Amino acid sequence: MNVTIFGSGYVGLVTGTCLAEMGNDVVCVDVDQRKIEMLERGEIPIYEPGLESMVHENTAAGRLRFTTDIADGVAHGLFQFIAVGTPPDEDGSADLQYVLAVARSVGEHMDDYKVIIDKSTVPVGTADRVREAVSETLTRRGAELEFDVVSNPEFLKEGAAIDDFMKPDRVIVGTDNPRTTELLRALYAPFNRNHDRLIAMDIRSAELTKYAANAMLATKISFMNELSNLADRLGADIEAVRNGIGSDPRIGYSFIYPGAGYGGSCFPKDVKALERTARDVGYEAELLSAVEAVNDRQKSVLFNKLHAHFGGALAGRTIALWGLAFKPNTDDMREAPARVLMESLWQAGARVRAFDPEAMEETHRIYGERDDLALVEGPEAALEGADALVVITEWHPFRSPDFALVKERLKQPVVFDGRNIYDPAYMAGQGFTYYAIGRPP
Ligand code: NAD
Ligand code: UGA
């Protein structure tokens, strides 16, 4: 089937590549010329495990190509996916300008029936606005053409995006027309394992399902972070508590890891956007406000622990930082807890020596050259002359370091573990002063 994807970011590129992998003929359109030129050269603008080889195979097979030519893109696909960004506006609501720009482009260039699919995360009611934008453009052209608008939110996680897309837990399809449900069912049929994964519903429920999923996951994390702060004050171990509650299948083990706060391009913005949607319809979503407030506070927990350890005397100190990306297996720094920590340390007059396996370039792009930030070649180099080590992203290579070397390189054997990846008793045995999240020393 012919598929066009607008937006070649995390979601668009993964969606396009995985649909091509299943034999579809896919064109990815982006307005960012630099990005398209990179993709045409076979370079992948983001770090996502497994993506590069899959892009290469599918472009070589002639099933996947990239363009900035919007008219070409619209002409190509029966399916027109909208996978552009929906960043937060100043008031927290999702900025729909890119989504509506694509809708107008489709209206401008289409000359036969199209299925327009919202894959971006968009507030309830957006499909109606997309429909209006397409209709208005068609009317202006004096064209009478049929089209349908579908809500098909995406649930992939960065770092595991290919696997998530190829083996989805579910494919949500919100339509008001059974014909489109069947078209989408055919497109997604190759992604069914064992049973039909497609869940069809009305459009508004599909739009809300996406926010509900992210808000629920963010709530689980903030709940555990709240409890970790309580555990800290009560002398309990949050990791024991986590095991204790996760064993109840009604609670489950996933997304109950306490840490330095959730980051990334989605949880923070989607919780805010849902809060905003609630307010727009006269409802104060108190739980969502609390989830957000707890997360904001959690991003300062490591700094507060450092501050307390050094008796407030952080000026002139050097802190080694392992991890910069908002989570492992990505180079994405959007809303990363490491940013809040570094900025607080700089404000307090401390210097940072940091290493991340993938996010060094992105960190440099964001902060540029500065005297109080050294982006170093490897985890050991970060320790050189540092007063303490902070681990903020749980990349595999940080999980089992040579602790003798860590101790030797640090000026003082102090470790702050923002992801609870080390064992407190072992760390004490190795002679470290060890701080974790919600665990007694
Ligand atoms: P992104 O910023 O990585 O990519 C968006 C791309 O859209 C950019 O390359 C941009 O140049 C392009 N674009 C903007 N306007 C365009 C236009 N008019 N025509 C063509 N291209 C255009 O964004 P992303 O992370 O892929 O997220 C896209 C959407 O998917 C968001 O709504 C996000 O909330 C949602 N989402 C993201 C993830 C994730 O893990 N990143 C997961 C699920 C859902
Ligand atoms: C998240 C969702 O998991 C995806 O299903 C969704 O499609 C996506 O948002 C989106 O809408 O964009 P992502 O942001 O890539 O995916 O990453 P997650 O693995 O969910 O992690 C988000 C943040 O939560 C990270 O900072 C991570 O460190 C933190 N986290 C996660 C915890 O602190 N504890 C946990 O137990 C799990």
Care to give the gist of this entry?
It is built from 18 helices and 14 strands. The chain has 441 residues and is of the alpha/beta class.
Q: Give the biggest sheet.
A: 6 strands, parallel
Which ligands does the model contain, each kind named once? nicotinamide-adenine-dinucleotide, uridine-5'-diphosphate-glucuronic acid
Q: How are the strands of the largest sheet arranged? A: 3-2-1-4-5-6
Q: What would CATH call the architecture of the largest domain?
A: 3-Layer(aba) Sandwich
Number of domains: 3
Q: Helix coverage percent of residues?
A: 40-55%
CATH class bucket of the largest domain = Alpha Beta
Q: Could you tell me the strand content as a percent range?
A: 5-15%
Shape: elongated
Task: Name the CATH superfamily assignment of the largest domain.
Answer: NAD(P)-binding Rossmann-like Domain
GO biological process, one term: UDP-glucuronate biosynthetic process
Keywords: NAD, Oxidoreductase
EC number: 1.1.1.22
Catalytic activity: UDP-alpha-D-glucose + 2 NAD(+) + H2O = UDP-alpha-D-glucuronate + 2 NADH + 3 H(+)
Protein model, in words:
The protein has 441 residues and is of the alpha/beta class. The protein has three domains: 2-201, NAD(P)-binding Rossmann-like Domain (Rossmann fold), CATH 3.40.50.720; 211-297, N-(1-d-carboxylethyl)-l-norvaline Dehydrogenase, domain 2 (Orthogonal Bundle); 299-435, Rossmann fold (3-Layer(aba) Sandwich). The chain has 18 helices and 14 strands. α14 (337-347) links the parallel β9 and β10 (351-355). It starts with a strand and ends in a 6-residue tail after the last strand. The structure holds nicotinamide-adenine-dinucleotide and uridine-5'-diphosphate-glucuronic acid. The site of nicotinamide-adenine-dinucleotide (NAD) has 26 residues, from α1 and α5. Substrate binds at residues 155-158, 210, 255-259, 263, 327. Belongs to the UDP-glucose/GDP-mannose dehydrogenase family. This is UDP-glucose 6-dehydrogenase.
